[in-house]
From TrEMBL:
Protein name, UniProt field: Mitochondrial fission process protein 1
A single GO BP: mitochondrial fission
Domain of life: Eukaryota
One annotated Gene Ontology cellular component of this protein: mitochondrion
Family: Belongs to the MTFP1 family.
Length: 151
């Protein structure tokens, strides 16, 4: 039997959760408000997935307890996999690429910043699945085990 497609995790919509990584990539070139706005988009995506999964659990008649568990699962998973972990990874990649160029080359500051933007943007497609898979493993071995005892 085929699993239904989860538009929040299995389609291009997943990349909305990475809006903050685009903001992090451009951090050296844009104002803080632009970066904050990118986090607002990513958190909006996270909340949308949480609401969708909660609503589907409610619609199935799973009961209030199960709806809360489903909401918690989606919110924690999305916060880790879409915002916190990739935001940190991209931030550090951009920072270190800028610092390496500053320390070991005579590349002008503006060029270093553009290189950092390129490094950040180019890395996004490569970090999505590994972070998603690691977050799923983490959730399977923490939250999901805990709530399986509560159910």
């Amino acid at each position: 039997m085929n699993e239904p497609v989860d538009i929040w995790r299995d389609t291009w919509v997943r990349y909305l959760g990475y809006a903050n990584e685009v903001g992090e990539s451009f951090r050296p070139m844009v104002s803080r408000n632009v970066v904050r706005g990118s986090y607002a988009v990513a958190f909006g995506y996270t909340v949308a997935d949480t609401v969708d999964k909660s609503y589907k659990a409610h619609k199935r008649g799973d009961g209030p307890h199960a709806v809360v568990i489903e909401a918690g699962d989606a919110l924690i998973w999305q916060t880790l996999a879409s915002v916190a972990i990739p935001g940190y990874v991209i931030n550090r990649l951009c920072y270190f690429s800028t610092e390496i160029l500053r320390k070991y080359s005579k590349v002008p500051r503006k060029t270093r910043n553009w290189v950092a933007v390129g490094v950040g943007l180019a890395s996004i497609p490569f970090i999505v699945r590994p972070i998603d898979n690691t977050t799923t493993w983490f959730m399977d071995n923490t939250y999901r085990k805990l709530v399986s005892y509560i159910k």
